[in-house]
Write a structure and sequence with these properties.
There is one protein chain. This protein is an alpha/beta fold and 231 residues long. It has five helices and ten strands; from the N terminus they run βββαβαβαβββαββα. Strand 2 and strand 3 form a beta hairpin.
Amino acid sequence: MATIISIETSTTVCSACLSVDGEIVANKEDYKGQNHSVVLGGYVKELLDYAHSKGLKLDAVAVSCGPGSYTGLRIGVSTAKGICYGADAKLIAVNTLKAMASGVIRTHCEIADGAWLCPMIDARRMEVYNAFYNLSLTQQRETAATIIAGDSFDDITKEHPVVCFGNGSEKCKSTLTDSRISFIDGIVPLAKDMVPLAEKQYKAGEFEDVAYFEPFYLKEFVAEHSQKKLF
C-alpha cells in the first residue's frame, strides 16, 4: 500500500493531494493566481499532518514535471525534493500534459472512440506546449512547443478527431476551425489527476534521483528586462 503526496504547480493553479493505494484521502487546491510559494508549504504541512494522524508512512512524492511555468515548476520540484529528503521518500515525476489527458478521460465519457487528446498549456502569444494521446493514454506525438496556425493539425484530423483543452486552448478556438477539432473548457492541471499515473509509476519502480532531477521546461527560461531608463 503506497502513500503518496502529489504536487501540481505548472500553471497559475496550485494543488496538492494525499493518496493511499491510489485513493485520494485529502486534497487542496488554490485558483487565486501565482500564490504557489505562499500556499504550497501550508498544503504540504496539512497533508503530512493528516498522514501522521492516521499512522501513515509517506512512501513517495509525485511532482508535475512540466512542461509549464518555469517558476511554478521550480517551486513544485524544490518542495517535492525537500519532502523526499525529510521523509526518506521516493520521487516520482509525472508529465503535466499526460496528467491533464488522464483527468479528461476520467471526467468526459462523451469523447468519441478514436479521438486524439491534445492538452495545451499556454506558452504566450500563439504558442502552446502540447502533445497528443489516444484514449488509452498512449502518446501519439512528442511534446512540443507549437505556434498555432489554421492548418496546424490538418495531418492528424484526416485520421482522427482532435479534442483540445487546457489554458492554452482558449486562444486557439478562432484559429483551429476544422470541424474535426473540438474543445473542452475549464481544464487545468491538478494534483488529483496525477494520482493514477503516480500510483502506476510507483508500482513499476519509476523513480527519479532526488539530487539531480530537474523539471521538463521544454524551452529555456528567458528573463524579461524592463525597457525603462534607469537615469
